[in-house]
Request: fold
Amino acid sequence: MTQLSVNINKIATLRNARGGNNPSVLKVALDCERFGAQGITVHPRPDERHIRYQDVYDLCPELTTEFNIEGYPNERFIELVLQVKPHQVTLVPDSPDQITSNTGWDTKTHFDFLRDLVARFNQVGIRTSIFVNADIEMVKNAAKLGADRVELYTEPYAAQYANNKEEAIAPFFEAAKEARKLGIGLNAGHDLNLQNLAFFCQTIPWVDEVSIGHALICDALYLGLDKTIKAYLACLKIEN
Ligand code: PXP
Reply:
């Protein structure tokens, strides 16, 4: 079954709005785990406007599920990941002032850079995932440079879902088939929600993990965190 990793950046954004520790990022992360999430994702950015570097150090020893750190691999990020040694690092090509990630890596142009990084993380036992668009060429290069997984950038799927879900998922299905053929793991994330998630995972049941933040935290305002996480987990259950 596809695993759910909850991205808790939005909780940090809310906390940072008032300067104290309410809501507590650590408490919410532990509650997500208690309510059934199989992983926690954080995305520290250079200006620490959401998750702070210190949050990452504080979370790591307390979590009991999979810890995924995603972000642009500048020197500070690389050092953080090597020190914290999460289960997985997801490399994302976002610039420091980007509101949110808006594209995947060009794994052809940045092949050498990514290959060297992947080797560094693999050496200390950290699984690597490369954020890519649903593009067969990008998946092929990610596999060739030695990444353990790719994470498909699902915003274009989410944007087109309401108009035509079959068309929306077609390039993702092709990219996902390529990943399976090459024996590389498959993650997915960005703008997945309670409306579009089940169809994605039913069509591509070999997705290893989805990482979901924005919509899940918004849903939790109405449903509560426990019910929300269970609703997302229900979307991931594949009926055979
Ligand atoms: N995956 C990556 C690489 C991301 O940058 C983000 C957003 O921080 C997500 C997944 C989660 O996206 P969303 O918040 O839209 O669920």
Observations:
- Residues 165-182 form the longest helix (18 residues).
